[in-house]
Amino acid sequence: MGKFLIKKTATGVKFDLLASNGQVIASSEVYTSDAACKNGIESVIKNSAIAKVEDQTVADFEKVTNPKFELYTDKSGEFRFRLKARNGEVIATSEGYKAKASCENGIESVIKNAADAEIVEA
Fold first, then answer.
1. Which CATH number covers residue 7?
2. Cα–Cα distances in Å, from 36 out to 23, 86, 97?
């Protein structure tokens, strides 16, 4: 079972979604309050379950409506994803992956782990 780990930062509060093996699969922006961070977690749970995948790494990719996972390559050529809520806000982002298949597995892991993840504070 995955878990959302809420952590204080120098400028606010953020969360990481961890897989059952403890690996970070997605991270949030920094929120100004615990309540806003918990709302972000609820948004990830709700939106990841129904999000489609927009693969921006292929030519002439099909644009899909929000909520969605955007799969893209960063400046260093690594594969990443970001989860966008229905309103277009980015609510979670991934680390960089060397292989596209690993990034796709990361998306699947968010969908699987977010649904019943416990919420813990660091």
1. 2.30.29.80
2. 24, 17, 29
Q: Is residue 101 pLDDT above 90, yes or no?
A: yes
**SS3 assignment, position 24:** strand
For 32, the domain range is 3-121
Q: What is the sign of the dihedral through the CA atoms of 13, 16, 22 and 24?
A: negative
Displacement of CA 20 from its chain's centroid (Å): 16
pLDDT tops 90 at residue 55: yes
pLDDT digits (tens, 9 = 90+) for 61-87: 999 999 999 999 999 999 999 999 999
| Cβ 117 vs Cβ 1: under 8 Å | yes
- Residue written as tokens 């892991």? 109
The tally of domains found in the chain comes to: 1
Question: What global pTM score does this model have?
Answer: 0.95
